[in-house]
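Example record

Each entry pairs one chain with its bound ligand, zinc ion.
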Amino acid sequence: MSTHSSSDRFYTEYDSRLVEEAVLLRSAGHPEENQFRRARNRIYEIADSEECEKRFHGFHADWFHRFNLGHPITAALEEQVSLVRDTRCCCVIFTPSAQDEGADLHEARDSCPADHEAKRMILLKLKPNTLLDTSNLQTFLRHEFMHIADILDPQFGYEPLLPKSEFGPAYESLVRERYRVLWDARIDGRLFRRGWVTEGIREKRLAEFTATFSIRDREAEEKFRQFFDSESQTHAGLMAFVLNAGTKTDRSLGGKPQARPCPLCRFPSFSIIEGAVGLSTEARDEIAVDFPEWRPEQGLCCQCADLYRARRLSRSAEATLPRI
Ligand SMILES: [Zn+2]
Ligand SMILES: [Zn+2]
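Structure tokens for the complex follow.
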């Protein structure tokens, strides 16, 4: 099912599973629920299965429009000019998991003719429930689409690949996480200045920043402002901060707690787990694969401990930045 924007060139495509599930959820308890059910039940009476399926698609698409379920997406796309101007379409896809939700930019090339420009498309993954959650949906979409606007902005200079590193997957994972924290701060800062996000977002992002970069107090607030309060950050600027922040925190500051570099990821941390206490044998074995030289006595930071506890780390995973 697809809908065209006012520009006519740009369109939004919805996958049929998302449309069906969103419509079913929306119809429950709706004043028109009975009418919806009766009309839907009649489609089951069609004997020809192909025809039946076609009719279901059409039926769900009609009710999707009737319930105005695509409106928040259209509105959020159109309020950021570059999205509609610099991409061809937005594909809205079903996902069952909240972790997987979000927007990403894809480039598709026509198989022929070869000299055609790549077609840029926005891929938006959503749970059907999210589409119905009107109080949070707008903020969520604005945030996600701001990531896309950054990727499209030549001045931001986005690069999807991480810089090469010999420090291994724990390091790369933390680089991705640190980058996400900075990028999200930059994005929510801009949303905040436009009045597009609720109060409290600054405090939330600052707390995340402080925890991630092991910087404290006034210094943290000062550094954080470079990202949250500034319009002019670039991808290279974010990455430089990601790679260098906190690496000079060894200086002595009158008995204040100091961040120490984690032996695995090498990033400074206030929360080194001495002796790797509480880490299971499985997690220790996982670490030994990546870091044969490491000994539990050396300890590790909380983030690394979480990574290896979860064992979600794929050693062969391509070092790309996260879909945010
Ligand atoms: Zn984000
Ligand atoms: Zn670490």
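Residues 2-152 form one domain.
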